[in-house]
Amino acid sequence: MAQVCCDSASAAAVVGPEAEVRARARAERRRRAGEAGRWKHAPAAAGTAEAATRKRRVEDGELLVARKHGAASVAGRRREMEDALSVHEAFAAGGAGRCDFYGVFDGHGCSHVAEACRDRMHELLAEELAAGADEEGPAAQRHPVAWTAAMERCFARMDAEVTSAGGRAAASASCRCDAHKCDHVGSTAVVAVVEERRVVVAHCGDSRAVLCRGGDGAAPVPLSSDHKADRPDEQERIEAAGGRVIFWEGARVLGVLAMSRAIGDGYLKPYVCSVPEVTVADLADGDDCLILASDGLWDVVSNEAACEVAHACLRRGREKWCAEAAALLTKLALARRSSDNVSVVVVDLRRKNH
């Protein structure tokens, strides 16, 4: 069950004196947060929703204002939580302007590959960007081709880490899978690096990134294309490598995996690869927000419906509208009978707020 940070109510009904004590405690937390000038964050983890309002901090002598964002993650109708979220502001040293990292990772078979991506992906990407800085110049001037190369190297290194020693190197202490089956575990990955006037999205698998634009009738802009096993170009690639797409409760690689690209899944290589597709998009003044989510949302909610929910929260004018949008999207997915874990990150892209 989801837990909403700061001022949410518990899923179980509480009445009597205990309810009054909890209400007073929530009011006191709100008062302290207001005095501090910002809402406190809960750590990005399974079963949480978080809000980030504007805060100021100094990074390498530069004054940065935090970008508003919100995240929510729920197990839903699954017995285990295998999704992971990642949010890291100003994650890459050097360069010009802000450079924030957001990621959604949807594990399958076990949670340890998604958790490894959550803990390591931003670090690997920062290393790749730093390694190429001397040749490519600062981040603000990095060419889209250079971004693609950096993302591909990052994903390859992440894949190598989780598949080393049959996947056991990435297994956490809470890993549920048998030692000899760790190479049967994998995760999708959709990551976004948001600069001042540009967003870079890299993905493998069927987690998705969507850009929501303001204005009446403005259509959402998909920044990724799901790697489904029956996508024509993906099916052709799989068959060229000697594999097959078998329809068993849907199209699956070798009748097993519904997605054609992922981090991990060593036993299905080379048919399932970790090479990401990368999109570099310039931001316009009318761009409102970016939505990253696992397929637990997109299986039952369209891009248009997701952006409508985000815009409705934005119009309410509340400071924590990103967190409200993320939480409402998870609730909408569950109401529409999503059978998977649901994880959502919403990032405010409006220039006037940063």
Automatic annotation (TrEMBL):
GO function terms (MF aspect): metal ion binding; protein serine/threonine phosphatase activity
InterPro entries noted in UniProt: PP2C, PP2C_BS, PPM-type-like_dom_sf, PPM-type_phosphatase-like_dom
Catalytic activity: O-phospho-L-seryl-[protein] + H2O = L-seryl-[protein] + phosphate; O-phospho-L-threonyl-[protein] + H2O = L-threonyl-[protein] + phosphate
SMART domains the UniProt entry points to: PP2C_SIG, PP2Cc
Biased composition annotated in UniProt, kind: Low complexity: 42-51
Principal EC category: hydrolase
Spans annotated as Disordered: 29-53
Keywords: Hydrolase, Magnesium, Manganese, Metal-binding, Protein phosphatase
Cofactor: Mn(2+); Mg(2+)
Positions of the PPM-type phosphatase domain: 68-349
Transmembrane portions of the chain: none
EC number: 3.1.3.16
Top-rank lineage group of the source organism: Eukaryota
Family: Belongs to the PP2C family.
Identification of the protein by name: protein-serine/threonine phosphatase
Native source species: Panicum miliaceum
